[in-house]
């Protein structure tokens, strides 16, 4: 984690509202499967499934569908926002096909993602789990702010946008080094006692912070980027801490922010004003080309399983631990169906061992986010 001087320097930079998307750490919890450069081919065998084929998993004591829906890029951050009606239709179709877990945050838009989720899920609010996040001071330009009074203020605003009287899972979006995590956990505990929040989560927190928070208020879920090509949580103790403490793990970026679909190449252009990936090392033309062996490997496995690369990427995550719940997302019903088809892909222990053996031979090029955003990742 960066020292306080570095973080304070970032917080006091006076980030403008216009530059909010590209200059704050908004990429953290979210959505991975994107509208541009998506797989156009579908695999009928794996795209046809009944609603009851989506099983459930536990995030702590919170029961959710084994795949959730990341709602960020419908409204922001991976290109221009989708048409509102299209976004509503996609989220409702997800529910109709067994998705019971929807992930958003106040900073997505900002605000517009929560509004969309609230409207889309209102007809069946009591049958779904809604996750949202706090931790940024949006009027102040996106600085970190997890002070108790701020949390109590923004939860009321999120509840209104979400058209609900409770948030099922409320994450701290980024750890605020200026506020003890025990104070954050204590504040969320108060909100839980009041019935405004049902479960507590952390995003991009270290194993140490997770343990400290859990000692005050049980943590139900931790959200961090995790995929076949981004596996730092396996080495830094975060995944192990979740397993030890009975905490669920929610990977954002489960298909590498779209890269693992196999439809992004060195010629793919990302709008620097509307697409966060334009500033990420891993999405430079050079690193996209350098990481092609990873995509080639996944494509080979996909061919053997009559699946798409995105489905293999999601199936791989589902096979890692029973408490892992990926949250892919898209504005496209076709791609939604493709994602959900991942539950029909069964990777055997020998499949997983073979993938790990081959992946160990491949170097991943480029950091997962830009330097400024990594400053607020523990």
UniProtKB/TrEMBL annotation:
PANTHER family: AFLATOXIN B1 ALDEHYDE REDUCTASE (PTHR43625), ALDO-KETO REDUCTASE (PTHR43625:SF77). Residues 67-356 form the NADP-dependent oxidoreductase domain. InterPro entries: Aldo-Keto_reductase, NAD(P)_OxRdtase_dom_sf, NADP_OxRdtase_dom, TAT_signal, TAT_signal_bac_arc. One of its GO terms (cellular component) is cytoplasm. Keywords: Oxidoreductase. SUPFAM superfamilies: NAD(P)-linked oxidoreductase (SSF51430). Signal peptide: none annotated. GO terms for molecular function: oxidoreductase activity. This is Aldo/keto reductase.
